[in-house]
Structure formats: C-alpha cells, structure tokens
Write a structure and sequence with these properties.
Layout: H1 3-22, H2 30-34, H3 40-50, H4 52-56, E1 73-76, E2 79-82, H5 99-108, H6 123-126, H7 131-141, E3 155-156, H8 166-173, H9 186-198, H10 202-205, E4 223-224, E5 231-232, H11 244-253, H12 264-273, H13 278-291
Antiparallel strand pairs: 1-2, 2-3, 4-5
Helix pairs in contact: 3-7, 5-7, 9-13, 11-12, 11-13
Length: about 290
C-alpha cells in the first residue's frame, strides 16, 4: 500500500471510530437511579402532566386511558411510527424494566437493550425533568393494568431504519437547556417546567427543520401537523391574543374563548392536564405569555 493509501485508511479508521463514539447511546450515570426512591402517589400527577396516555392508550373508541397498550399511528415524512405498549406487562410492555431502565428511556432515549429510541418519543423534553419525578412516574406506571398487546414495529425506510443514526440526531439537536430563559417569576418557572419538560408542548407547537429538530428560534410558533392533516396552531405571536385566564380555562375545560371545543389529539392532552391543580394550569399560562415576550 502506498503512502496515500495508508493515509486514507488511517483517516477512515479515525473517522469511523469518532463516528461510532459520537453515535453511541449515552445513559444516565448509575448513581442517579441508585439514590432515588419513587412514590406512586406523587407519580400520578407526573403521569397526567406528561400526557403518557395521550399517545399510549389503546386505539379503540372506548379505550381505558390507564391501559397503555399502545398502537397509535403517527405518520411523518420519515415514515410511520407506532406508539408501543408501555403497560406493566413483562413480555410486551415495560414490566421487566428497572427504574434505571425507565429513566434511561424517558430522559436519554435509550432502551434497556442499549439502542436509541426515535425522537417521536419526546425524551428531548423529558430530559429536562427532575429525575425524582421520573422515578415517581415509574412507580405509578407499575401500578397500572398490564396488557399483553404486542408493540408494532415502526415502518421506516432507509436510512431512517438505522437506529444508530439517531445518535447523530441527538448530537445535533438534543439539549437540556431551557428555551425560555431570563429573570422568570416563581410562577413562570413552574410553568416552564410543566410546559417545556413534562407536558412537552413544544414537541407539537414548534416548527421543525428538515431533519426533524425543533427550530428553537420559532418556539411555539405553530407547525404542520406531522400526520399531514391541518396545522398545529401557534400559541405565541401577534395572532395569539389569549389572556392568562383564557389559556388556563382552556387547559382545564377544553373550551376556547370563542366557546369552540378542543378536538383531535389536543382533547386527549386536556383530558390529562385538566386534572392538574388550577395553580399549575395558571403557571403554564404565565409561562406561555412569557414565552411570547422572548
């Protein structure tokens, strides 16, 4: 092999090694889970705020929101994603997961088998959550009914079916930095935690770039519906004139200021958020109005 060939080979080896390192699944330090004891009663509130049932409940019209058998279909230009079974069933759900497995999944997007989850799962938002809240959520979810419905494989074409490539996506777009910063009031700070971390409002209400990363410069400015049907509205900007009372009341009741009713996936979101304390809904409203000023 001539000198140029050896240089090219060396560069290829270095590049491949660097790429393998960058795309590796990164889990939480073991000490994070070791120091946590979850509380199922506290976890119920996290379950409602995080909206787990909105995506993972069954698809039947009379589906029980506490039976997380999965099956919901999400069509995107990357392919079709299917919500998995996350009930406590040991064979088809998460019943065999440890608390550490659960925290790695929801906060780092890494499966118990050490593979990347696709970011259709909003772990980019849950990454900002308090690990104690996620430990509480784990304990609560383990009290829910088990269901033996098998999860359905995603329908993705090349190259999106290569899970290792999600490591590149994470390196580019996954951050635990808050989108709305500055000198926030205590209420706005609470609302930011609820909206940015747990309720993951931006996952739907913020436009995305060609690779599916959120455009943080247009935070909450509305986005095309991933299903291709309609548009998810902006909740900031000149065309959004709701008051804090309007926002809080909508999240509690589903009624807009013009007495229209929330529909589609938002109706499921409100079915969960509407069970939170009014002070928490008021905090989300305060955060949204603050976000409009950023």
């Amino acid at each position: 092999m001539n000198r140029l060939g050896r240089v090219v080979l060396a560069l290829a080896i270095v590049g491949g090694t660097l790429g393998w390192y960058v795309t590796r699944p990164v889990t939480l330090p073991e000490t994070v889970s070791e120091r946590l004891t979850g509380d199922a009663q506290a976890g119920e509130r996290i379950f409602l705020a995080a909206g787990c049932a909105s995506c993972h409940m069954g698809t039947e019209d009379d589906a029980d929101p506490l039976v997380l058998s999965g099956g919901a279909q999400f069509e995107t230009h990357f392919g079709t994603f299917y919500a998995p079974n996350i009930s406590p069933d040991r064979d088809h759900g998460i019943g065999g997961w440890t608390q550490a497995d659960f925290l790695d999944a929801v906060m780092r997007g890494v499966s118990p088998q050490g593979q990347h989850y696709y970011p259709a799962f909003p772990y980019t938002s849950y990454a900002k959550a308090d690990p104690q809240d996620m430990a509480d959520l784990y304990e609560y979810m383990m009290t829910l009914p088990a269901d033996a419905t098998p999860s359905r494989d995603h329908d993705l074409g090349f190259p999106f079916n290569i899970r290792r490539s999600v490591g590149v996506w994470k390196a580019l777009f996954m951050t635990r930095d808050w989108a709305v910063t500055g000198d926030l009031t205590a209420e706005e700070t609470q609302g930011r935690y609820l909206a940015e971390a747990l309720a993951h409002c931006a996952e739907c209400h913020t436009p995305r770039n060609a690779l599916g990363g959120m455009d943080r410069a247009r935070w909450l400015e509305g986005a095309p519906n991933p299903s291709g049907s309609g548009r998810i509205p902006a909740i900031v900007g000149d065309d959004f004139s709701w008051t804090a009372f309007d926002i809080s009341a909508y999240l509690e009741t589903g009624f807009t200021p013009s007495f229209d009713v929330a529909g589609g996936s938002m109706s499921k979101v409100i079915a969960n958020l509407g069970q939170l304390d009014k002070a928490e809904l008021d905090a989300i409203a305060a955060y949204i109005l603050r976000a409009a000023d950023e």
